[in-house]
Amino acid sequence: MTDENPFGKTWGEWTAEWWKWSLSLPKDQNPITDSTGENASYNQGGPVWFLAGTFGGLAERTCEIPAEKAIFFPISCNETSFAECPNFKTEAELRAFAKADIDQVKTIMATVDGQRLPDPDLRRLESPPFELDLPERSVVGAPPGKTKSKSDGYWVFLKPLPVGRHEIHFFSSCRIGTQWIEAWFHLTVR
User: Fold this and answer.
1) Of 6, 14, 65, 150, whose CB is crowded by the most CB atoms within 10 A?
2) Contact 155, 77 (CB under 8 A)
3) Each residue of 109-125: b (16+ CB within 10 Å) or e?
4) 3-class SS of residue 17
5) What are the b/e assignments for 17-50, b being 16+ CB within 10 Å?
6) What is the pLDDT of residues 23-79, one digit of tens each?
7) How far apart are CA 144 and CA 136, in angstroms?
8) 8 A C-beta contact, residue 167 and residue 184
9) In the chain, what are the domain boundaries?
């Protein structure tokens, strides 16, 4: 998608919406920790459908997406909040922490139906500061409640896919250590 303000929000604002969606769900319902795709539809609404990556390693998921929904997902991303890092006192500290992790990414790629997306479609985005409302049993292990957050990462925004079956694949790896993320989505658009 080339629109700089899809559906009335900047790409950076959409990253904040993705984090609010993904981190609002407790661990047992969270699409990030889901190994099958059964949690993919929780709290989905509006014109954009979110797909979740992993905290590391491989995920293969099967899910259905309503027709006419744009699709937004991270290839590699990092988020931090005052709840997760209580020693941080400023938004600048949150930003620097989120950015430092993503600065280590060396490889990113994504395909849709076997066709590799061109590098300009894989955008590095920083979110504006945003408020999270973390649930009990949060996937980030922070206490429940409201907190301020920032994020950085590489993202893809797709126009709605035609009705039928589709496959989305993405991969990222870091310069340091062995951290990598790979996800396969077997989608049915109805």
Assistant:
1) 150
2) yes
3) bbebeeeebeeeebbbb
4) helix
5) bbbbbbbbbbeebbbbbbeebebbebeeeeebbb
6) 999 999 999 999 999 999 999 989 999 999 999 999 999 999 999 999 999 999 999
7) 5
8) yes
9) 10-189
